[in-house]
Amino acid sequence: MDWIVAPDHDGRALPDVLPSLLAAMGTPGFTDTVGFPACRNAAVLLVDGLGWDLLRAYAADAPFLASLATGNPVKVGFPTTTATSITSLGTGSLAGEHGVVGYTFAEPSGGLLHPLSWGTHSSPNASASRRSLLQDWPPESAQPRATVLERAVEAGVDVRIAVPREFKGTGLTRAALRGGEFRGVGAMGDLAAELLTALAVPGPALCYGYHGHLDGLGHGHGPGSLPWRMQLSQIDALVANLASKLPESAVLAVVADHGMVAVDPEDTLDADTEPALQHGVRLIGGEGRARHVYAEPGAGGDVLAAWREAIGCRGVVVTGEQAIDDGWFGPVISGPVRPRIGDVIAVMRESAVVRSAVEPAESSLRGQHGSMTAAEQYVPLLVAQG
Fold it and tell me: Rounded distance, CA 225 to CA 101, Å?
């Protein structure tokens, strides 16, 4: 398993970014373990899907970003998926503490939560409609830890989040980013304007911004495709423009939530058509490259053996307990989080375990993530200052 890049706790990972920026601003109660320059105000721009390996491979399409990539990358944690990583960034903790343990995972009523929509996933019945869990399992109950943004507001910081306006009030926003003033945006122009406006206030001020189109194009066309590269060039111009307009004593940090790898949809395992992957299985959560498998009572051993045989050398299949013991979800697993972790965890080195009936759109993606390869786990942390 030498290809597995497990999370570690060296103080320079995605959960350390916001606390370290706040410490660099001189905010009481926070410690800078990353090493940001001292500043009055700070902004962090998260570019969904911008992996470290991808930035280096396509540096010619992003010369300004590449010029900032003079340090080491950071790890995002496991699984390498947007809902988990944004909650790790927003809470300053890994999945074992904050509890958003995957793209989908077991929820208390016996189904699967899809945290991006905060509704029940359509598994195991593909014809079932999704149902919102915002009332039955509020995000503030599922993820009760104070966010870094809430702590910053209590410390007197002007906190804002500049994200797509449709994210207002969503379950993930409430779970991961509650506490900041919501500033809905629709395009790169107002995203940039919101970041610069926040950085120009007397301070102290912290603004979080999000750009998601690179990830979408990577999923649909593949990372490194021409549409993906053209989008990367646009992001490079955005960051270069922001950096040229930074006020004095302001810092802009650019980071990502995960990398991405190319997957051939014709060369995947399909859990919805392979009986061996269904026997003794109650629920299948996660996503193609990182699956939570929840076994029927007493069937855990058989499920483990069947998944190991089916996946073979294309990945690693372990018990949930082994994943926990090996620190995949971080050093701490809170009591309410343990039932959300699968009895069996399958992570892929290559290819993916798709669900053609239950997840038809996800199963056709040409770019995927979730596992613990270096391409998915390492992301850039780029810093510009005024």
Answer: 30
